User: What shape does this take?
Amino acid sequence: MNLLININSLVVLDPFALFFLTVILLISFPALVYSLGYLQPKYSGAKLLTTQLTTVAFILSMALLVIVGNALVFLIVWELMTLLSYLLILTDSESDAAVNAASLYIIMTHCGTAFLTAAIFLIYRHSGSFDLPAMAAACQTMSPLLRNTLFFFFLIGFGTKAGVVPLHLWLPYAHPQAPSHISSLMSGVMIKTALYGLIRFVFLVLGISSLWWGITVLTLGIISALIGIIYALMDKQLKRLLAYSSVENIGLILLGIGLAMILTRLNLPGLAALALTAALYHLLNHAVFKGLLFLCAGSVQKGTGTLNLEKLGGLIKTMPWTAGFFLVGAMGISALPPLNGFVSEWLLLQALFTGGQSVPGLPALYLALAAAAIALTGGLTAACFVKAFGITFLALPRSQEAAEAREAPRTMIFGMAFLAAAVVCLGLLGPTVFNVLATVAGSICRAAPPPAAFLSSDLTICFVLALGSGLAIGHFSNGQKVRVGRTWACGYYETGSRNEYTATAFSKPFRIAFSFFLLPFRKTEKVKDSFYHVKSFVYETYTTKIFKEYLYDAGLGLVLRGARFFKRAQAGSIHLYLSYILATLVLLALLVRAF
Amino acid sequence: MQALTVILYLLLAIGLAPLLSGVIARLKNNLRLRAGQSILQPYRNLRKLLGKEEIVPENSSWLFRAAPAIVFAASLTLFLLLRTNSLLSVIFVLALGRFFLALAALDAGSAFGGIGSSREMFLASFVEPAACLVILVLYLAPGPAWSVAHILAGLALLIVVLAETARQPVDNQETHLELTMVHEAMLLDHSGPALALLLLAAQIKQLFWLVLLVSLFVPLTALLPLGAGLLAAALVIALIEVGIAKYRLFKVPDLLVFGSILALLAVAGALLGV
Assistant: This one.
């Protein structure tokens, strides 16, 4: 009988693990500094201490997760990470919304974990060891059916945690409920550990044995990216918008991973390494800018007391630092040169283009379709963040709270500044970062990393661009003749915040264009005090969350109906219950004998 | 030396961009049997605006004043990308200019800016897939050539051009009716040199798109065919603008999706080598 846990292979520090460790620490440090100021007046004493200790334990659990080389320990740490993040979502446990969100989160991720546990134990039956290399060796001799099953189990298990559509349901509830530095850690890092698991177990343990695995992952990526960003565009609660945008970015990363799987299967390891590099680069970038954006959202919430876009506005004047950092994050996430999102999305498109060139026939056309999907997603993302930044920070404040906003304390500004600097650096130092990540991806795809020469020429241009705009701004701020005047309002002069465009109005064209999917509806309510005069008019517009209403609520209804059916067995007699226990034991004993 | 040629090249782009606008406007007028303005009119407009004072809306922030320079720089960068043939970056650089233009429009705090900003981002989302696929065609089958793939890509690109340069049936440059404008609505609160910069940026972008369109069929090094190609493209645009009324906003995505499908067919053509 061999040991379940082999001490020698307990810790794996390969380039891939080190990369993830770096990502985790890169986000954790500023998030922790930020939390010093963020939690301060609201929480105190024991509550503050336990929250901070839980946060540190949560970070350590994530760090541990990516360096263990034993699948059993991986499962244990995975569960630990889930439970700690559950506690952190419950920080404001007196609010019903937090309790509901946390319950949804823990139920969904546990369903996912069940699949992972099943998958890992299925492999264990063949390998007789939980060491990853031994498991990888055992996977090579499995039947195709078993391998396909395992792939699906891993996809569902990790997909739930990552928030892949249609398993994304918990994300927009849980992320906004947690304190902002926790949202930033969860959205920036935690959901990425699921992608770590996916790459680790599918690429390195299971081995890619069919072309359609890659196609499945690529398709899921496209669907997640588009649906995530469409929902983000519709939302007017800042943190929920960011959570939906995380679904989108997970989709883009999955798209890269799927492409790498396809190319690996088609014996193009060099190009697969390029695709995986792009995916890892985007993963790193998303960790950084989404972390930053959540921190900025927390700062807005602290400064104004609301996250409702319709009540914000004009914060660029009262909260200049937060506004500046949010702008950097928004530019990064909208893939604008020369910041980091540009580099990774450029690489993704480049990988698709070169893939399309080398792959024969129909798959190439499918890759072209994927490229078009990325472009559409890019356009929608830019629109979403024009809305998020423009409505929150520009023009006039739309409420008293927004007008009286106060800038965040210094520790919070430091946290945001650190990540904003990372957004800029990861963009400007593209070729260097690319080379590092190419080594990581190369170690996974077992191929020489592709050269990065093609990147630098474009980045030089970005430098010129940055320089040019800098010079032009300098020229203009010198200003020859500038006068402050009124905003043009067709000759009317009393313009105020009620003349401004709202977030709902901004997203209206999209709501109409995607109405086949969003199923929008409106509620209007007129109160008349006479036939001629309308005293008040209420207009509300909603979209239908089709996954929740048609998939989850239907499933939930089935479960409840089933529970009601089985309730008949619960008659209240202790003798009956004892006989149930006996029957279960006998059944289990039979089951064990059968295997 | 190389820096000098780059600067001369960019100056040429800046210098010729208004001329193209003037030519299209003149062609449109002549097609309607009107005398029309001089083809140099855009230059006069720019000179006039550059000499005027700039009025900044009271509710706006530094972003409103920084945006025109960034939009201008982004437009100019397009020509650098054309020169180094790194077309993949085009959609990203376009997005940069558009992002700041849309933000500046919101910054003035009027509903018109909001309308323009929202519509511009809306239409751009549907333009990007088509643009991306056309660039993929150029990547798979570098031009110039008169193949099926290039002709289909040219048609798709023509639709992209109509949307990107605020032409009918997508937008109408000649109207100043606030509720129907898209591009104009975003410029409404800019004035003086800032407005000049934004107009010039739009003209440079227009020249870029038309050069890209012509480059599908004609080598860019041959100046005479290039000029003839640009003139032909200008005529086509003028004919379309005179011949078609503006679409309803929510019908425009149909046109743009049609463009994307044409571009996808072009990719298929390029993959088949026809």
